[in-house]
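Chapter review: from sequence to fold.
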Amino acid sequence: MGLISIFNRKITMNYRISILVVLLFLFSCSKENLVDISPKINFDVSEWILKGRNITCVDFDKDENVWIASGNELIFYNISKIKTYDVGSLILDISVATDGRVWLGTKDKGLASFSNGEFTFYNSENSGLPRDLIFDVETSPDGSVWFSSSAHQLGGLMHYDGDFELFTPDNSIINHNLILGLKINAKGEVYFFSGGTVTEAKVFKTDGKNKWSKLGGEVVFYWIAALDLTSKSEPVVVTDHSLSSCWSCYENEVVIYREGKWKVFERDFDIDFFNRMFIDKRDYIWVKGSVQGDYSGYFVFDGNEWHRSKEGQISEVFIKSVKVDKQNNIWFCTEEGIFILNQ
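The token string follows.
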């Protein structure tokens, strides 16, 4: 074989390798979740924002702007700009849709949407909602909205995709009207739990169409304080016995639904009542608790063992909700503003 032929083959091979490298680079950069997340757990507060403000909850849009609920006010927040909008009712929950529309659960004005500087309200008068107090709202990847318009023996789980649909014990497998703790995965599957009666809290799943299931069959819990999902859509719940007349008779637990069964996590600490349990982008489970009546802080399960925050690392202010952003920074909403733990 001649030198010219060998040289041409090398050029062709190098060209193909270069093209392959470029394509791999472009493919990698197109991944939405391409974030270098450290396995290290940071309990130190990285930043306080809106200090002194009573913050209920937050969510983030696709441009990583922050939408914050504080009393009656919806706050748009980024590094260079803060703008406030008056909703006219206490905001109880917030969820930003894929199209940028902000959906709000309000205390007495029903379900609200905010877009292009204007609010639209859906309530019992104009949309047939069972109740105008909406305390859980989640938007689906398809742009539709799931929310709870319910109370004990009233209403249920609602879905809005241009029309409203109500799911109750009368037309679905839900065991109680009161619906709490909504979570939606990337496939649009909805996980939620019922309340209304102690000893009968239950977790359900629906694909939003015709498929509904009771997770764990007939297994029920005394009460559920919080629910979240792992990246594999495994629900994790924290049980709550604060409504019991005998607190010492029961023990709160952290439980995961895995391989068709509810499994209790082993631990050596006590779980706080009214828990703000959540799961971060690493699938680490954060639970508030203490050891033998010692200081209250966060315990984090990394898949192998529990890690505990030091005394004073987590502020003692009342935590109203927690949200994890795409970079795995953790936003704690409190009565004294928002403190952030960068991971």
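Two observations follow directly from the output. Residues 42-341 form a domain with the Methylamine Dehydrogenase; Chain H fold (CATH 2.130.10.10). Residues 3-29 form the longest helix (27 residues).
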